Amino acid sequence: MTRNIQEVISQMTVEEKASLCSGLNMWQTKPVERLGIPSIVMTDGPHGLRKQGNPADMSSKTVPATCFPSGAGLASSWDRELIQEVGKALGEECQAEDVQIILGPAVNIKRSPLCGRNFEYFSEDPYLSSEMGTHHVLGVQGEGVGTSVKHYAANNQETLRNSINSIVDERTLNEIYLRCFEGPITAADAWTVMCAYNLVNGDFCSENEYLLTEVLKERWGHNGIVMTDWGAINERVKGLKAGLELEMPFVGPEHDQMIVDAVRSGELDEAVLDSAVARLLTVIFKASDARKEGFNYDKDIHHQLARRTAAECMVLLKNDENLLPLNKSQSVAVIGAFAKNPRFQGGGSSHISPTRLDAPLEVISVFAEGDVSFAEGYRIDEDTIDEALIEEAVALAASKHVAVIFAGLPDSFETEGLDRTHLDIPSSQIQLIQQVAAVQPNTVVVLSNGSPVAMPWLVDVKAVLEGYLGGQATGSAVADVLYGEVNPSGKLAETFPVRLEQTPAYLNFPGGKSEVYYGEGLFVGYRYYEAKKEQPLFPFGYGLSYTTFAYEDILVDKTHLKDTETTTVTMTVRNTGTRAGKEVVQLYVRPIESTVVRPLKELKGFTKVSLQPGEATTISFTLDKRAFAYYNTEIHDWFAETGSYEIVVGPSSVDTPLSSTVHVVSTQIPFKKVTRNTKFYELLAIPETAVFAQEAMDSSIEGLKHMGAMFAESMDDGGIAQLFEAMLEWKKYDGLRSLSGMMGSGMTEAKLEQIIDEMNAKLGLK
Fold it and tell me: Which residue intervals define the domain Fibronectin type III-like in the entry (predicted)?
C-alpha cells in the first residue's frame, strides 16, 4: 500500500510524534489508530525466534522455534548461501508468529576470546563478519521481515557493558569495528540498526552523532531506524538529535514528554523529530504491509536445515591416522554428560525454546552397528572431579574400539552479561579426557563451546571436532560428521590461542572501571599473531577434511591498475582425495611496502566450493580499490596508496600456496590540502606534484652532505655512506617545512609558501 508519509506526519500532533519514538511495551511499537499507524512486533534473535507468547507480558512462555547454530558456528561455514537460507527460514518463522522485526544479526568483532557473548558473534575479521551479516539480512528481509544489526558499535565485552567507554582510534574504529556493520547496511539495506549500551570515545552509542549520523546516515546512506538495545538510553533528547529514532522498551510516559517539552521550548527543532518519525513510519508501514496472515512453516524441513547447517559449521581440528570417519561396525564408548544433555545454544537473550532436540547419544546409537555404551564422566552443573564417574568412563573406554568424549563449556562458563576469566574447560573434563586417552588410543573429543578453549590435552587424543553451539540438531549433525555421512568443511572464523597471555587484547581487556583502551589497534586476531610471529593453537581459516585439495594456476588479469579499476584473480582448486568434499578458498592481500602501519595481510575474498573426487573447478575473485585500501584519517576515507601488493590464496591464513603481485596506482589525493607538514612521499605519489617533490628531494642532498660531514671524524667511510643512505630514505617522511631549515637548500619561508600555494592550485585544493 502506497502512503504519503509526509502527509501523515502533517496530521500528527507533537505528542503523537513523540509517542512513536518509544515502545508500547517490551516488544511492540505504539500505534496511532486515528491515522492508521499500526503497532509492529519485534523479538529477540539472532539464530532463532525468541518470542514470548504475549508480547505485552514478560512472564509469558516463549513459543517453540527452530534453534539454528549460533553465530560463532554459522560463520565457520564460510557459506554465504547457507547463511542466507537460514535467514530465509528465520523470516518464515517470524511471519508464522506475526513478528515484524527480529533482533539480529550480531556482527561485533571478537576482540578477545573472553567476551561472554562471543558465541553470538561471527568472527575476529571484519570482512568475514560483514559478509555473513549481509547474507543473514538478505535472507530474513527477503521474507518481508526486518532485521536489526547489532550491537552498534565497539561492543566487545560484557564487563561493565552499560557504562564502559571504548577508546578506539579513528582508523581502527573504521577498519575493524565499523567495517563489520557496513555490508549488512549498505549491501543488504537492513531496516534497523541497534545501538549498544557502551560509550565510544566519550559519547554513549545512543547519542553518538559520529556513529549514528556521520557514518550510518550520511556515509552509508542508511534510510531505516536506529533503536536502542533494551534500556540503552542516556539522555532522550540528546539521542534524538544525534540520530536515535526509537527507544526500547517503553519505560513510562516521561521520556516521550521530554521530547514534547524540548520541541515546545525550542530546545529541539521539530524538523528533527519529523525526520525521525518519517524513518519510523517508513519501517512500520513496510513491515506491516509485508505481513502474511495465516502463514505457516514446516517444522521438519526447518529442523533438517538446522541439521545440515550444523554439520557444515563443524570444524575438524585434528584427525591423526585418519581415525575419523568412524567405521559403523566399531564398538564405541560415548562419554560425557553433554552426549545426553547437549549444550546447543548460549545463555541470555538469544535463548530459544527449540521445536525438538537431538541428543548425540541417541543418534549415535542409531548410526552404529557395533556396541554403543555410555558413561557420564562429569556433572554438567558443577566443576568438581568425581573420581567414580571418571573411573567408570575409563573402564568403559578401555573395553571399546573407540572413545568419543563430549566436552566443552557449560552455561555457567559463558553467557551474555558475564565475560570469561580464563580459556579452560572445566577441570573435571580435562582430567576425564586425559585419563580416558591414557587407556584408549582411539579417543575423539567433540567440543560444545561458543568461543576458543585451551587444550592442554590435545597431544593425548587422536581427533578433535569443534562443534561450537550447534543448535537443536547438533546431535544428528555430530553423528553425520563422525560417521562420514557429511565430510567436514568448516573453517575457523577466529584464532584459537595456546594460552590467554598470547591474545592480542590481553593487556587491555576488559579495561578499568570506566574505560577500556583498544591498545592493540588494528592488530586483532590473526593480524596480531602474524605480526608478532606468534604460533597459535589453531590459526584463522583452519579446518581439516576427509579428503584433500590442491591449489593450482593463479592468474591475475591486470598486473597494473589504477585504484578506479578492478582486477580479476582466477585459480584452480582440485579434489585430490577419494571422497566428495567442500573447500573454503581464502584470498588475502599483502601490501609489499607501505608508508603507514598495516597488517601483514588481510582477508579480501573467500568462496566455498563442492568437488567430487578428482574434480577441479576454476574460481574467480574480483578485487577493487577497497581490497587494497586502508582508512586514511586525514581525508576520513578509504585510500589505496600507490605500490605493489601480493595476492595470496589458500586453505587458511597460514597456508597460502598461490601468490601473484599487482601494482596499484592511486588517483586519490591522500590529504585535504598541501601544508608545511605534507610529507614528501605523499607528493611523490601524485603526478601533478611528483616532479617538484623529486627536485626538492634532490636539492636536499647538499644539505645532507653538510650534516654527514659533522660525523666524518667519528665514523669510517662505510658508516658515513650508510648514514647518508638512511637519511635520504628518512627524508621521504619529512614535511615540506624541513626544506626551509635545510642547509644548502636555498629555500626561504616566502618561497616555500609560494610553492605550497601553487601545488594546491594544481590539485584544485583550497
Answer: 583-653
Parallel, antiparallel, or unpaired: how do β-strands 165-167 and 515-517 relate? parallel
Shared domain check, 376 and 339: yes
Q: Are residues 467 and 572 in the same domain?
A: no
Q: How far is CA 508 from the centre of its chain?
A: 20
Which phi and psi (to 5°) does residue 124 adopt?
A: -85, -10
Query: CA–CA separation, 647 vs 588, rounded Å?
Result: 6
DSSP, collapsed to helix, strand or coil, labels residue 503 as coil
Q: How many domains does the chain have?
A: 4
Fill in the amino acid letter for 731. K
Residue 524 lies in a domain: yes
Residue 18, in any domain of the structure: yes
* Any domain includes 94: no
Alpha helix segments (H runs only) across 520-662: 526-532
Same domain, 507 and 626: no
Which alpha helices (DSSP H) does 604-686 contain, by range?
A: 680-684
CA 120 to chain centroid, in Å, comes to 10
Tens of pLDDT, residues 235-280: 999 999 999 999 999 999 999 999 999 999 999 999 999 999 999 9
Buried b (16+ CB within 10 A) or exposed e, 63-83: bbbbbbbbbbbbbbbbbbebb
Nearest one of 240, 289, 316 to 538, comparing CA atoms: 316
Last residue within a domain, chosen from 637, 665, 693: 665
pLDDT in tens, 111-146: 999 999 999 999 999 999 999 999 999 999 999 999
Q: Active-site positions?
A: 229
Work out the number of other CB atoms within 10 angstroms of the CB of residue 572: 15
For residue 588, tell me if it sits in a domain: yes
CA distances from 475 to 302, 411, 433, 470, 607 (A): 15, 18, 20, 8, 27
* pTM (2 d.p.): 0.96
- Give the CATH number for residue 267: 3.20.20.300
Given a contact cutoff of 8 angstroms between Cβ atoms, the answer to whether 70 and 350 are in contact is: yes
Residue 224: DSSP 8-state: S
Q: How far is CA 183 from its chain centroid?
A: 11
3-state secondary structure of 691: helix
Please state, in angstroms and rounded to a whole number, the distance separating the CA atoms of residues 622 and 406. Answer: 42
Between strands 192-195 and 146-152, the pairing is parallel
* 254-265 helix and 270-289 helix, angle to the nearest 10 degrees: 140
- Same-domain check for residues 328 and 427: yes
Q: Which three cell numbers stand for residue 736?
A: 615540506
Q: What pLDDT, in 10s, does the model give residues 187-205? A: 999 999 999 999 999 999 9
User: Is there a single domain that holds both residue 366 and residue 476?
Assistant: yes
Structural domain harbouring 160: 1-39+156-164+186-289
> What cell does 683 get?
607528493
Grid coordinates in use for 596? Answer: 603507514
The candidate with the shortest Cα–Cα distance to 96, out of 355, 347, 320, is 355
